[in-house]
Amino acid sequence: MQHYRLEPTAQPAQPKQPRSFSRGLAMGAIAFLVVAFLTLAGVIVAYAQIAADLPLPSELAARASSFQSTRIYDRNGVLLNETFDPNEGRRVAVSLDRMSPWLRQATIATEDANFYRHPGVDPIALVRAVYYAVREREFVSGGSTIPQQLVKLIFLSSERSAIRKIKEAILAAEVSRRYSKEQILEIYLNEVNYGNLAYGVDSAAEIYFGKDVGDLTLAEAALLAGLPQAPAYYDPYTYPERAKDRQSVVLGLMVEAGAISPGEADTAWLEPLTYIPVRYDFIAPHFTVYVRQQLESLLGPEALYRVGLNVTTSLDLELQNSAQAIVAEQVQSLAERNVSNGALVALNPQSGEILALVGSADYDNVEIDGQVNMALSPRQPGSSIKPLVYLAAFENPERPLAERWTPGTLVADIEQDFPDGANPPYRPKNYDEKEHGILTVGASLANSYNIPAVRAIEFVGVNNFIAVAQRLGISTLNRQDYGLSLSLGGGEIPLLEMTGAFAVLANGGLRRPPQAIIKIEDGEGNIICEINTPVPCRLDGLA
Protein backbone atom coordinates (compact mmCIF):
# COMPACT_ATOMS: atom_id res chain seq x y z
CA MET A 1 0.00 0.00 0.00
CA GLN A 2 1.32 3.35 -0.96
CA HIS A 3 1.05 6.29 1.36
CA TYR A 4 0.77 9.73 -0.08
CA ARG A 5 1.65 12.88 1.68
CA LEU A 6 0.72 16.30 0.48
CA GLU A 7 3.47 18.78 0.77
CA PRO A 8 2.53 22.43 1.05
CA THR A 9 3.14 24.30 -2.18
CA ALA A 10 5.95 26.69 -1.86
CA GLN A 11 4.72 30.28 -2.09
CA PRO A 12 6.94 32.92 -3.57
CA ALA A 13 8.00 35.54 -1.14
CA GLN A 14 5.77 38.62 -1.30
CA PRO A 15 7.62 41.83 -1.78
CA LYS A 16 7.26 44.39 0.93
CA GLN A 17 4.73 47.10 0.18
CA PRO A 18 6.30 50.50 0.03
CA ARG A 19 5.53 52.69 3.01
CA SER A 20 3.94 55.26 0.70
CA PHE A 21 1.39 52.67 -0.53
CA SER A 22 0.43 51.71 3.03
CA ARG A 23 0.11 55.35 3.98
CA GLY A 24 -2.15 55.97 0.93
CA LEU A 25 -4.35 53.03 1.86
CA ALA A 26 -4.77 54.33 5.38
CA MET A 27 -5.57 57.82 4.15
CA GLY A 28 -8.18 56.39 1.75
CA ALA A 29 -9.86 54.51 4.59
CA ILE A 30 -9.91 57.64 6.71
CA ALA A 31 -11.38 59.66 3.83
CA PHE A 32 -14.09 57.03 3.35
CA LEU A 33 -14.98 57.14 7.02
CA VAL A 34 -15.12 60.94 6.94
CA VAL A 35 -17.43 60.92 3.89
CA ALA A 36 -19.64 58.26 5.48
CA PHE A 37 -19.79 60.27 8.71
CA LEU A 38 -20.62 63.50 6.89
CA THR A 39 -23.28 61.72 4.83
CA LEU A 40 -24.85 60.24 7.95
CA ALA A 41 -24.68 63.60 9.67
CA GLY A 42 -26.30 65.23 6.65
CA VAL A 43 -29.12 62.68 6.67
CA ILE A 44 -29.65 63.26 10.39
CA VAL A 45 -29.69 67.04 9.94
CA ALA A 46 -32.05 66.81 6.95
CA TYR A 47 -34.31 64.45 8.91
CA ALA A 48 -34.34 66.87 11.85
CA GLN A 49 -35.06 69.87 9.62
CA ILE A 50 -37.94 68.16 7.81
CA ALA A 51 -39.31 66.78 11.06
CA ALA A 52 -39.14 70.25 12.64
CA ASP A 53 -41.32 71.68 9.84
CA LEU A 54 -43.94 68.94 10.10
CA PRO A 55 -46.99 68.89 12.39
CA LEU A 56 -46.35 67.41 15.80
CA PRO A 57 -47.04 63.67 15.86
CA SER A 58 -48.58 64.20 19.31
CA GLU A 59 -51.43 66.05 17.55
CA LEU A 60 -52.50 62.89 15.74
CA ALA A 61 -55.62 62.11 17.75
CA ALA A 62 -56.61 65.77 18.12
CA ARG A 63 -56.43 66.44 14.37
CA ALA A 64 -58.23 63.28 13.29
CA SER A 65 -61.61 63.76 11.65
CA SER A 66 -61.01 67.36 10.55
CA PHE A 67 -63.36 68.08 7.69
CA GLN A 68 -63.97 70.53 4.84
CA SER A 69 -66.92 70.24 2.51
CA THR A 70 -66.56 69.56 -1.20
CA ARG A 71 -69.24 71.24 -3.31
CA ILE A 72 -70.28 69.80 -6.68
CA TYR A 73 -72.08 72.10 -9.14
CA ASP A 74 -73.66 71.73 -12.54
CA ARG A 75 -72.24 73.76 -15.45
CA ASN A 76 -74.47 76.73 -14.57
CA GLY A 77 -73.51 76.89 -10.90
CA VAL A 78 -76.47 74.94 -9.47
CA LEU A 79 -75.38 72.99 -6.37
CA LEU A 80 -75.79 69.25 -6.91
CA ASN A 81 -74.17 67.98 -3.73
CA GLU A 82 -72.16 69.10 -0.74
CA THR A 83 -70.34 66.43 1.21
CA PHE A 84 -71.72 66.63 4.71
CA ASP A 85 -69.60 66.53 7.83
CA PRO A 86 -69.17 62.90 8.84
CA ASN A 87 -68.91 64.12 12.45
CA GLU A 88 -72.64 64.81 12.21
CA GLY A 89 -73.84 61.24 12.01
CA ARG A 90 -71.64 59.41 9.50
CA ARG A 91 -68.54 59.02 11.61
CA VAL A 92 -68.72 57.55 15.10
CA ALA A 93 -65.38 56.76 16.71
CA VAL A 94 -65.34 53.38 18.42
CA SER A 95 -62.65 51.69 20.48
CA LEU A 96 -60.56 48.91 18.98
CA ASP A 97 -62.01 46.27 21.29
CA ARG A 98 -65.52 47.08 20.00
CA MET A 99 -64.53 46.30 16.41
CA SER A 100 -64.91 42.88 14.86
CA PRO A 101 -61.61 40.96 15.18
CA TRP A 102 -62.18 39.79 11.61
CA LEU A 103 -62.08 43.38 10.44
CA ARG A 104 -58.86 44.14 12.31
CA GLN A 105 -57.17 41.04 10.92
CA ALA A 106 -58.46 41.62 7.39
CA THR A 107 -57.25 45.23 7.41
CA ILE A 108 -53.76 44.34 8.61
CA ALA A 109 -53.44 41.42 6.17
CA THR A 110 -54.48 43.66 3.27
CA GLU A 111 -52.95 47.02 4.10
CA ASP A 112 -49.88 46.27 6.19
CA ALA A 113 -48.93 42.62 6.79
CA ASN A 114 -45.88 43.60 8.88
CA PHE A 115 -47.78 46.17 10.94
CA TYR A 116 -46.66 44.81 14.32
CA ARG A 117 -43.03 44.35 13.20
CA HIS A 118 -41.94 47.56 11.46
CA PRO A 119 -41.12 51.02 12.93
CA GLY A 120 -43.61 52.89 10.76
CA VAL A 121 -42.04 52.38 7.33
CA ASP A 122 -41.71 48.96 5.71
CA PRO A 123 -39.60 48.51 2.54
CA ILE A 124 -40.69 44.86 2.42
CA ALA A 125 -44.30 45.98 2.01
CA LEU A 126 -43.40 47.98 -1.08
CA VAL A 127 -41.66 44.97 -2.65
CA ARG A 128 -44.67 42.83 -1.71
CA ALA A 129 -47.09 45.28 -3.32
CA VAL A 130 -45.06 45.31 -6.56
CA TYR A 131 -44.91 41.50 -6.56
CA TYR A 132 -48.68 41.17 -6.23
CA ALA A 133 -49.31 43.90 -8.80
CA VAL A 134 -47.22 41.97 -11.34
CA ARG A 135 -48.70 38.57 -10.43
CA GLU A 136 -52.34 39.60 -10.25
CA ARG A 137 -52.11 42.43 -12.84
CA GLU A 138 -53.83 44.77 -10.42
CA PHE A 139 -53.12 46.64 -7.17
CA VAL A 140 -53.72 43.95 -4.52
CA SER A 141 -52.00 45.05 -1.34
CA GLY A 142 -50.73 48.36 -0.04
CA GLY A 143 -47.16 49.61 -0.43
CA SER A 144 -47.63 52.23 2.29
CA THR A 145 -47.89 51.12 5.90
CA ILE A 146 -50.92 51.89 8.05
CA PRO A 147 -48.96 54.65 9.89
CA GLN A 148 -48.01 56.17 6.52
CA GLN A 149 -51.60 56.10 5.32
CA LEU A 150 -52.77 57.61 8.60
CA VAL A 151 -50.39 60.58 8.55
CA LYS A 152 -51.26 61.16 4.90
CA LEU A 153 -54.94 61.33 5.86
CA ILE A 154 -54.48 63.63 8.81
CA PHE A 155 -51.38 65.78 8.30
CA LEU A 156 -50.42 66.01 4.64
CA SER A 157 -51.89 67.44 1.45
CA SER A 158 -53.02 65.36 -1.50
CA GLU A 159 -50.00 66.33 -3.66
CA ARG A 160 -48.08 63.43 -5.15
CA SER A 161 -44.35 64.16 -5.03
CA ALA A 162 -41.12 62.69 -3.75
CA ILE A 163 -40.81 65.27 -0.96
CA ARG A 164 -44.34 64.44 0.19
CA LYS A 165 -43.39 60.75 0.41
CA ILE A 166 -40.30 61.64 2.45
CA LYS A 167 -42.38 63.72 4.84
CA GLU A 168 -44.90 60.89 5.04
CA ALA A 169 -42.17 58.39 5.96
CA ILE A 170 -40.65 60.66 8.63
CA LEU A 171 -44.00 61.41 10.22
CA ALA A 172 -44.94 57.71 10.14
CA ALA A 173 -41.72 56.85 11.96
CA GLU A 174 -42.29 59.57 14.56
CA VAL A 175 -45.93 58.59 15.08
CA SER A 176 -44.91 54.94 15.50
CA ARG A 177 -42.35 56.00 18.10
CA ARG A 178 -44.90 57.94 20.17
CA TYR A 179 -48.06 55.85 19.81
CA SER A 180 -48.75 52.19 20.44
CA LYS A 181 -49.74 49.94 17.56
CA GLU A 182 -53.23 49.61 19.02
CA GLN A 183 -53.68 53.39 19.17
CA ILE A 184 -52.52 53.81 15.58
CA LEU A 185 -54.79 51.04 14.31
CA GLU A 186 -57.78 52.40 16.23
CA ILE A 187 -57.37 55.95 14.89
CA TYR A 188 -56.83 54.64 11.36
CA LEU A 189 -59.95 52.45 11.37
CA ASN A 190 -62.02 55.35 12.68
CA GLU A 191 -60.59 57.71 10.05
CA VAL A 192 -60.34 55.86 6.74
CA ASN A 193 -62.81 56.34 3.90
CA TYR A 194 -64.84 53.28 2.86
CA GLY A 195 -66.75 55.06 0.10
CA ASN A 196 -70.39 56.15 -0.10
CA LEU A 197 -69.74 58.80 2.59
CA ALA A 198 -68.74 56.13 5.11
CA TYR A 199 -65.79 57.45 7.13
CA GLY A 200 -64.58 55.00 9.73
CA VAL A 201 -65.50 51.36 10.31
CA ASP A 202 -68.57 52.02 12.42
CA SER A 203 -70.19 54.08 9.66
CA ALA A 204 -69.12 51.57 7.03
CA ALA A 205 -70.71 48.67 8.93
CA GLU A 206 -73.91 50.66 9.35
CA ILE A 207 -74.10 52.02 5.79
CA TYR A 208 -73.32 48.81 3.93
CA PHE A 209 -74.75 46.13 6.21
CA GLY A 210 -76.92 47.90 8.80
CA LYS A 211 -74.84 46.35 11.59
CA ASP A 212 -72.77 47.32 14.57
CA VAL A 213 -69.09 47.11 13.71
CA GLY A 214 -68.60 44.41 16.33
CA ASP A 215 -71.12 42.10 14.67
CA LEU A 216 -69.52 41.87 11.24
CA THR A 217 -69.01 38.39 9.87
CA LEU A 218 -65.75 37.31 8.26
CA ALA A 219 -67.32 37.75 4.80
CA GLU A 220 -68.54 41.27 5.58
CA ALA A 221 -65.27 42.28 7.23
CA ALA A 222 -63.26 41.06 4.21
CA LEU A 223 -65.49 43.08 1.89
CA LEU A 224 -65.02 46.28 3.91
CA ALA A 225 -61.27 45.79 4.37
CA GLY A 226 -60.82 45.72 0.61
CA LEU A 227 -62.50 49.07 -0.03
CA PRO A 228 -60.13 51.80 1.31
CA GLN A 229 -57.43 51.42 -1.35
CA ALA A 230 -59.92 52.39 -4.08
CA PRO A 231 -63.40 52.92 -2.64
CA ALA A 232 -64.78 54.29 -5.91
CA TYR A 233 -63.38 51.47 -8.02
CA TYR A 234 -64.61 48.72 -5.68
CA ASP A 235 -67.95 50.36 -4.83
CA PRO A 236 -70.27 47.36 -4.24
CA TYR A 237 -73.34 49.31 -5.32
CA THR A 238 -71.94 50.42 -8.67
CA TYR A 239 -69.51 47.54 -9.30
CA PRO A 240 -70.71 44.48 -7.30
CA GLU A 241 -68.53 42.05 -9.27
CA ARG A 242 -65.39 44.10 -8.61
CA ALA A 243 -66.24 44.25 -4.91
CA LYS A 244 -66.74 40.48 -4.79
CA ASP A 245 -63.43 39.86 -6.56
CA ARG A 246 -61.73 42.22 -4.12
CA GLN A 247 -63.25 40.35 -1.18
CA SER A 248 -61.72 37.15 -2.57
CA VAL A 249 -58.28 38.80 -2.69
CA VAL A 250 -58.59 39.95 0.94
CA LEU A 251 -59.59 36.45 2.08
CA GLY A 252 -56.56 35.06 0.26
CA LEU A 253 -54.26 37.54 2.00
CA MET A 254 -55.77 36.56 5.36
CA VAL A 255 -55.02 32.90 4.62
CA GLU A 256 -51.46 33.83 3.64
CA ALA A 257 -51.06 35.76 6.91
CA GLY A 258 -52.30 32.77 8.93
CA ALA A 259 -55.35 34.67 10.24
CA ILE A 260 -57.84 32.16 8.80
CA SER A 261 -57.77 28.72 7.21
CA PRO A 262 -58.46 28.04 3.51
CA GLY A 263 -61.72 26.39 4.54
CA GLU A 264 -62.84 29.49 6.43
CA ALA A 265 -61.96 31.62 3.40
CA ASP A 266 -64.04 29.42 1.10
CA THR A 267 -67.02 29.50 3.46
CA ALA A 268 -66.83 33.28 3.75
CA TRP A 269 -66.60 33.75 -0.01
CA LEU A 270 -69.74 31.64 -0.52
CA GLU A 271 -71.68 33.60 2.10
CA PRO A 272 -74.20 35.87 0.33
CA LEU A 273 -73.78 39.59 1.08
CA THR A 274 -76.87 41.73 1.54
CA TYR A 275 -76.25 45.46 1.20
CA ILE A 276 -78.44 48.13 2.74
CA PRO A 277 -79.64 50.56 0.05
CA VAL A 278 -77.96 53.95 0.41
CA ARG A 279 -80.22 56.99 0.35
CA TYR A 280 -78.62 60.24 -0.74
CA ASP A 281 -80.21 63.64 -0.56
CA PHE A 282 -78.70 65.19 -3.65
CA ILE A 283 -79.55 65.95 -7.26
CA ALA A 284 -78.70 63.68 -10.21
CA PRO A 285 -77.48 60.90 -7.89
CA HIS A 286 -75.81 58.58 -10.42
CA PHE A 287 -73.93 61.43 -12.08
CA THR A 288 -72.93 62.97 -8.75
CA VAL A 289 -71.66 59.64 -7.40
CA TYR A 290 -69.75 59.21 -10.66
CA VAL A 291 -68.11 62.62 -10.19
CA ARG A 292 -67.20 61.79 -6.59
CA GLN A 293 -65.59 58.57 -7.79
CA GLN A 294 -63.53 60.53 -10.30
CA LEU A 295 -62.44 63.01 -7.65
CA GLU A 296 -61.20 60.11 -5.54
CA SER A 297 -59.28 58.71 -8.51
CA LEU A 298 -57.81 62.08 -9.47
CA LEU A 299 -56.88 63.49 -6.07
CA GLY A 300 -57.17 60.62 -3.60
CA PRO A 301 -60.05 59.77 -1.24
CA GLU A 302 -58.76 62.13 1.45
CA ALA A 303 -59.00 65.20 -0.81
CA LEU A 304 -62.75 64.78 -1.15
CA TYR A 305 -63.45 65.78 2.44
CA ARG A 306 -60.30 67.59 3.60
CA VAL A 307 -59.34 70.10 0.92
CA GLY A 308 -62.66 71.94 0.55
CA LEU A 309 -63.01 71.52 -3.21
CA ASN A 310 -65.36 73.42 -5.50
CA VAL A 311 -66.14 71.25 -8.51
CA THR A 312 -67.85 72.51 -11.67
CA THR A 313 -69.22 69.64 -13.71
CA SER A 314 -70.40 69.34 -17.30
CA LEU A 315 -73.99 68.51 -16.32
CA ASP A 316 -76.84 70.67 -17.58
CA LEU A 317 -79.41 70.24 -14.82
CA GLU A 318 -82.35 71.31 -16.99
CA LEU A 319 -81.39 68.72 -19.60
CA GLN A 320 -80.77 66.17 -16.83
CA ASN A 321 -84.28 66.62 -15.47
CA SER A 322 -85.70 66.10 -18.97
CA ALA A 323 -83.56 62.98 -19.39
CA GLN A 324 -84.80 61.51 -16.11
CA ALA A 325 -88.40 62.12 -17.17
CA ILE A 326 -87.78 60.51 -20.58
CA VAL A 327 -86.26 57.37 -19.02
CA ALA A 328 -89.13 57.01 -16.55
CA GLU A 329 -91.71 57.52 -19.30
CA GLN A 330 -90.09 55.04 -21.69
CA VAL A 331 -89.66 52.35 -19.03
CA GLN A 332 -93.29 52.71 -18.03
CA SER A 333 -94.47 52.48 -21.65
CA LEU A 334 -92.52 49.23 -22.10
CA ALA A 335 -93.61 47.64 -18.82
CA GLU A 336 -95.83 45.15 -20.64
CA ARG A 337 -92.71 43.84 -22.38
CA ASN A 338 -91.04 43.22 -18.98
CA VAL A 339 -88.83 46.30 -19.26
CA SER A 340 -88.21 47.62 -15.75
CA ASN A 341 -85.13 49.79 -16.04
CA GLY A 342 -83.30 52.13 -18.39
CA ALA A 343 -80.43 54.58 -18.74
CA LEU A 344 -79.59 57.63 -20.85
CA VAL A 345 -76.40 59.53 -21.68
CA ALA A 346 -76.23 62.83 -23.61
CA LEU A 347 -72.85 64.15 -24.79
CA ASN A 348 -71.59 67.22 -26.59
CA PRO A 349 -69.66 65.55 -29.46
CA GLN A 350 -67.38 68.55 -30.01
CA SER A 351 -66.13 68.69 -26.40
CA GLY A 352 -67.01 65.30 -24.92
CA GLU A 353 -68.82 67.01 -22.04
CA ILE A 354 -71.50 64.85 -20.41
CA LEU A 355 -74.64 66.98 -20.43
CA ALA A 356 -76.96 64.38 -18.89
CA LEU A 357 -76.44 60.96 -17.34
CA VAL A 358 -79.30 58.86 -15.96
CA GLY A 359 -78.15 55.53 -14.51
CA SER A 360 -81.54 53.96 -13.76
CA ALA A 361 -85.26 54.65 -13.84
CA ASP A 362 -85.38 55.09 -10.06
CA TYR A 363 -82.24 55.40 -7.93
CA ASP A 364 -84.04 54.36 -4.73
CA ASN A 365 -85.88 51.34 -6.18
CA VAL A 366 -84.29 48.22 -4.71
CA GLU A 367 -86.35 45.86 -6.87
CA ILE A 368 -84.65 47.08 -10.05
CA ASP A 369 -81.21 47.52 -8.42
CA GLY A 370 -81.69 51.24 -8.94
CA GLN A 371 -78.38 52.18 -7.38
CA VAL A 372 -76.44 50.23 -10.01
CA ASN A 373 -75.39 52.77 -12.63
CA MET A 374 -76.48 51.18 -15.90
CA ALA A 375 -74.76 53.94 -17.83
CA LEU A 376 -71.44 52.56 -16.58
CA SER A 377 -72.32 48.86 -16.35
CA PRO A 378 -71.44 46.77 -19.44
CA ARG A 379 -74.56 45.61 -21.27
CA GLN A 380 -75.11 44.02 -24.68
CA PRO A 381 -75.67 46.90 -27.12
CA GLY A 382 -77.76 44.91 -29.60
CA SER A 383 -78.07 46.32 -33.11
CA SER A 384 -76.63 49.69 -32.07
CA ILE A 385 -73.21 48.13 -32.68
CA LYS A 386 -73.90 47.68 -36.41
CA PRO A 387 -72.87 51.20 -37.56
CA LEU A 388 -69.47 50.62 -35.96
CA VAL A 389 -69.12 47.28 -37.75
CA TYR A 390 -69.83 48.91 -41.11
CA LEU A 391 -67.43 51.73 -40.22
CA ALA A 392 -64.69 49.12 -39.79
CA ALA A 393 -65.62 47.64 -43.18
CA PHE A 394 -65.35 51.08 -44.82
CA GLU A 395 -61.96 51.78 -43.25
CA ASN A 396 -60.34 48.30 -43.34
CA PRO A 397 -56.75 49.48 -44.00
CA GLU A 398 -55.48 45.92 -44.54
CA ARG A 399 -57.48 45.69 -47.78
CA PRO A 400 -56.64 47.45 -51.06
CA LEU A 401 -58.74 50.56 -51.58
CA ALA A 402 -60.75 48.91 -54.35
CA GLU A 403 -61.81 46.08 -52.00
CA ARG A 404 -63.04 48.24 -49.14
CA TRP A 405 -66.76 48.54 -48.63
CA THR A 406 -68.79 51.68 -49.23
CA PRO A 407 -72.48 52.44 -48.56
CA GLY A 408 -73.12 51.38 -52.17
CA THR A 409 -71.39 47.99 -51.91
CA LEU A 410 -73.75 45.10 -52.66
CA VAL A 411 -74.13 42.45 -49.96
CA ALA A 412 -76.24 39.26 -49.86
CA ASP A 413 -79.01 39.11 -47.30
CA ILE A 414 -79.33 35.36 -47.73
CA GLU A 415 -79.18 32.80 -44.93
CA GLN A 416 -76.16 30.52 -44.76
CA ASP A 417 -73.93 28.75 -42.26
CA PHE A 418 -70.88 30.79 -41.26
CA PRO A 419 -67.70 29.20 -39.91
CA ASP A 420 -67.26 30.85 -36.55
CA GLY A 421 -64.16 29.78 -34.66
CA ALA A 422 -64.83 27.32 -31.87
CA ASN A 423 -68.60 27.33 -32.34
CA PRO A 424 -69.43 26.58 -35.99
CA PRO A 425 -71.74 26.71 -37.72
CA TYR A 426 -73.32 30.11 -37.03
CA ARG A 427 -76.58 30.76 -38.92
CA PRO A 428 -77.99 34.22 -38.15
CA LYS A 429 -81.54 35.23 -39.03
CA ASN A 430 -83.14 38.62 -39.54
CA TYR A 431 -85.59 39.92 -36.97
CA ASP A 432 -88.44 39.56 -39.51
CA GLU A 433 -87.44 35.94 -40.26
CA LYS A 434 -87.08 36.82 -43.97
CA GLU A 435 -84.32 37.05 -46.56
CA HIS A 436 -84.11 40.14 -48.76
CA GLY A 437 -81.70 39.15 -51.49
CA ILE A 438 -78.95 41.43 -52.76
CA LEU A 439 -78.93 44.84 -51.04
CA THR A 440 -76.61 47.80 -50.70
CA VAL A 441 -74.77 48.23 -47.42
CA GLY A 442 -76.68 51.47 -46.89
CA ALA A 443 -80.05 49.69 -47.18
CA SER A 444 -78.84 46.84 -44.96
CA LEU A 445 -77.87 49.26 -42.22
CA ALA A 446 -80.99 51.39 -42.61
CA ASN A 447 -83.16 48.30 -42.11
CA SER A 448 -80.88 46.83 -39.41
CA TYR A 449 -80.71 43.46 -41.11
CA ASN A 450 -78.60 40.91 -39.25
CA ILE A 451 -77.18 38.73 -42.02
CA PRO A 452 -75.36 41.57 -43.86
CA ALA A 453 -73.88 42.78 -40.56
CA VAL A 454 -72.45 39.32 -39.94
CA ARG A 455 -70.99 39.33 -43.45
CA ALA A 456 -69.45 42.71 -42.68
CA ILE A 457 -67.61 41.56 -39.54
CA GLU A 458 -66.52 38.37 -41.34
CA PHE A 459 -65.06 40.61 -44.08
CA VAL A 460 -63.29 42.85 -41.54
CA GLY A 461 -62.23 40.19 -39.04
CA VAL A 462 -63.28 40.18 -35.38
CA ASN A 463 -59.90 41.35 -34.08
CA ASN A 464 -59.73 44.18 -36.60
CA PHE A 465 -63.21 45.31 -35.59
CA ILE A 466 -62.24 45.29 -31.90
CA ALA A 467 -59.21 47.45 -32.75
CA VAL A 468 -61.50 50.00 -34.41
CA ALA A 469 -63.87 49.91 -31.42
CA GLN A 470 -60.96 50.58 -29.06
CA ARG A 471 -59.95 53.62 -31.10
CA LEU A 472 -63.51 54.86 -30.66
CA GLY A 473 -63.11 54.62 -26.87
CA ILE A 474 -64.65 51.18 -26.20
CA SER A 475 -62.53 49.39 -23.60
CA THR A 476 -64.63 46.41 -22.49
CA LEU A 477 -64.35 44.11 -25.53
CA ASN A 478 -61.41 42.28 -23.99
CA ARG A 479 -62.36 38.59 -24.09
CA GLN A 480 -60.62 36.10 -26.36
CA ASP A 481 -63.67 34.10 -27.44
CA TYR A 482 -65.73 36.60 -29.45
CA GLY A 483 -67.25 35.37 -32.69
CA LEU A 484 -69.29 36.80 -35.52
CA SER A 485 -72.24 37.44 -33.17
CA LEU A 486 -70.27 40.45 -31.96
CA SER A 487 -71.75 42.29 -34.94
CA LEU A 488 -75.25 41.79 -33.45
CA GLY A 489 -74.35 42.97 -29.95
CA GLY A 490 -72.81 39.79 -28.55
CA GLY A 491 -70.24 41.72 -26.47
CA GLU A 492 -70.94 43.89 -23.42
CA ILE A 493 -70.23 47.63 -23.57
CA PRO A 494 -71.19 50.43 -21.12
CA LEU A 495 -73.70 52.95 -22.45
CA LEU A 496 -71.27 55.80 -21.76
CA GLU A 497 -68.66 54.21 -24.03
CA MET A 498 -71.21 53.51 -26.78
CA THR A 499 -72.39 57.12 -26.62
CA GLY A 500 -68.79 58.29 -26.80
CA ALA A 501 -68.20 56.12 -29.87
CA PHE A 502 -71.19 57.59 -31.69
CA ALA A 503 -70.01 61.06 -30.68
CA VAL A 504 -66.87 60.41 -32.72
CA LEU A 505 -69.06 59.91 -35.79
CA ALA A 506 -71.01 63.08 -35.01
CA ASN A 507 -67.73 64.99 -34.64
CA GLY A 508 -66.40 64.05 -38.07
CA GLY A 509 -64.12 61.28 -36.81
CA LEU A 510 -62.42 63.33 -34.07
CA ARG A 511 -62.67 61.68 -30.65
CA ARG A 512 -63.23 63.79 -27.54
CA PRO A 513 -63.24 61.46 -24.50
CA PRO A 514 -66.34 61.82 -22.31
CA GLN A 515 -65.72 64.52 -19.70
CA ALA A 516 -67.69 64.92 -16.48
CA ILE A 517 -65.62 67.59 -14.71
CA ILE A 518 -64.96 71.03 -16.19
CA LYS A 519 -62.98 72.61 -13.35
CA ILE A 520 -61.75 71.86 -9.83
CA GLU A 521 -60.75 74.65 -7.42
CA ASP A 522 -59.43 74.40 -3.89
CA GLY A 523 -60.93 76.32 -0.99
CA GLU A 524 -58.81 79.39 -1.80
CA GLY A 525 -60.04 79.56 -5.38
CA ASN A 526 -56.84 78.18 -6.89
CA ILE A 527 -57.51 76.10 -10.01
CA ILE A 528 -56.31 72.52 -9.63
CA CYS A 529 -57.36 71.44 -13.12
CA GLU A 530 -59.60 72.67 -15.92
CA ILE A 531 -60.93 71.40 -19.23
CA ASN A 532 -59.13 72.54 -22.41
CA THR A 533 -55.93 73.37 -20.51
CA PRO A 534 -52.63 71.48 -20.20
CA VAL A 535 -54.01 70.05 -16.93
CA PRO A 536 -57.51 68.72 -17.72
CA CYS A 537 -59.62 67.13 -14.99
CA ARG A 538 -59.28 63.58 -16.16
CA LEU A 539 -57.03 60.54 -16.13
CA ASP A 540 -56.44 58.16 -19.04
CA GLY A 541 -59.40 55.82 -19.11
CA LEU A 542 -61.56 58.14 -17.02
CA ALA A 543 -64.32 60.31 -18.38
CATH homologous superfamily title of the domain at 90-277: Biosynthetic peptidoglycan transglycosylase-like
Mean pLDDT: 82
Q: How does the major sheet shape up?
A: 5 strands, mixed
What's the tally of helices?
A: 19
Computed Rg: 31 Å
CATH topology label of the domain at 90-277: Penicillin binding protein transpeptidase fold
Strand content: 5-15%
User: What is the overall shape?
Assistant: elongated
CATH architecture of the domain at 90-277: Orthogonal Bundle
Low-pLDDT runs of 5+ residues are: 1-14, 85-90
Describe this structure in words.
The chain is of the alpha+beta class. Among the domains are: 188 residues, Biosynthetic peptidoglycan transglycosylase-like (Penicillin binding protein transpeptidase fold, Orthogonal Bundle), CATH 1.10.3810.10; 112 residues, Beta-lactamase (3-Layer(aba) Sandwich), CATH 3.40.710.10. 42% of the residues lie in helices and 7% in strands. The chain contains 19 helices and nine strands. The strands form three sheets. It has a five-stranded mixed β-sheet with strand order 2-1-3-8-9, with no helix packed on it. A two-stranded antiparallel ribbon has the order 4-5. Strand 1 and strand 2 form a beta hairpin. Helix 3 packs parallel to helix 9 and helix 15 packs parallel to helix 17. The protein is elongated and about 80 Å long. The N terminus is likely disordered.
